[in-house]
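The protein record now logged underneath.
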Amino acid sequence: FTFDPPELTVSVGTRVTWVNHDDVPHTATSTTKPRAFNSGTLDTDQKYSFEFKTAGVYDYFCAVHPKMTGRITVK
């Protein structure tokens, strides 16, 4: 019940892919409103990708398990 890695630094234009390797559903949902990205519910082995086109810090969480958090820093 953690994002691995919990923090990631990437360049502008990078496409990040989340893969759910757990046997329970998860999401990758940005904390900002409006949401910068939202994977929707990902079942086991499902993937979601998002291209980060703007520099900044993007905090996110799992909407099913809100204590699961992560951060993407885009430079």
User: Anything to note?
Assistant: The radius of gyration is 12 Å.
